[in-house]
Design a protein that fits this description.
Elements (H helix, E strand, L loop, with lengths): L2 E5 L11 H9 L4 E8 L5 E3 L20 H4 L20 H8 L5 E6 L9 H11 L6 E5 L2 H10 L4 E6 L6 H8 L3 E5 L5 H9 L3 E5 L4 H10 L3 E4 L2 H8 L3
Parallel strand pairs: 1-2, 1-9, 2-4, 4-5, 5-6, 6-7, 7-8, 8-9
Antiparallel strand pairs: 2-3
Helix pairs in contact: 8-9
């Protein structure tokens, strides 16, 4: 069955990568949550998609130039709706403290394709191990070097190569890097790729899938998971198959 993964939480109805979005995703019966991790100036992993805070907070500047205490003062909710004013940027540890008491699977994207944060992989791995959630976590990244680095840290955590571009025999390429799954942009999805992934015993998941017709195609073709901003609709539509 195709897993329903809440993309940055229930990000259609709450500000992405905030606790309200994660809590709503859980209430909507999402089976997993996807979120993004970057490092602060003091090497604390925090959950935010962009390298810059401008789009999703009331400030500006790069995550890497902020200390955590400074980031915590920013409003990460009002940009979406005044109803979410005061929502803050979460640390990965704060998120794990909440997640550990849920049945959710975690899809954690290392945002290191534009800024290759030093030591991001071991810092993240240490926290996942500390909270004993490694067995229900998938690490993903667009950065091939990061895939290799993380695969050397752990032989058990599932690592996925993210891509939005066509790569010749993607599953084999990803496997050679140390990945155990591929996460692809929807437009790359086709039956041949699914067959190649099955041949290499590699999972394939698709992002970001919000429309009925796209979801139904993913379900029919046999994707292992879809990342969606509307997990409640995805579960409803999956029940139709």
């Amino acid at each position: 069955m195709t897993m329903i993964i809440a993309h940055r939480g229930a990000s259609k109805v709450a500000p992405e990568n905030t606790m309200p979005a994660f809590e709503l995703a859980l209430r909507m019966k999402a089976e997993a949550i996807e979120t993004d991790v970057q490092l602060t100036k003091d090497n604390i992993p925090v959950l935010i998609h962009d390298e810059h805070v401008k789009r999703t907070t009331n400030s500006h500047g790069y995550i890497k130039d902020y200390h955590l205490a400074e980031l915590k003062k920013l409003d990460a909710g009002s940009w979406f709706s005044k109803n979410f004013g005061g929502a803050t940027i979460l640390t990965l540890e704060e998120f794990l403290q909440w997640m550990v008491n849920t049945p959710l699977h975690l899809h954690l994207e290392l945002k290191n394709n534009k800024i290759d944060y030093m030591h991001l992989e071991p810092i993240v791995y240490e926290l996942l191990s500390q909270y004993k959630v490694a067995d229900r976590t998938t690490i993903s990244t667009f950065n091939p070097d990061s895939v290799q680095r993380f695969s050397q840290l752990s032989s058990t955590i599932e690592i996925a190569l993210l891509t939005s571009r066509k790569i010749n025999n993607l599953p084999r390429y990803a496997k050679e890097l140390g990945a155990k799954a591929v996460h692809i942009k929807y437009r790359l999805l086709n039956k041949k790729l699914i067959q190649q992934c099955q041949h290499e015993n590699m999972r394939v998941r698709v992002y970001t899938v919000n429309q009925f017709s796209s979801m139904m195609r993913c379900f029919r073709i046999g994707c292992d998971g879809i990342f969606t901003d509307v997990p409640n609709k995805a579960i409803l539509y999956r029940n139709l198959t």
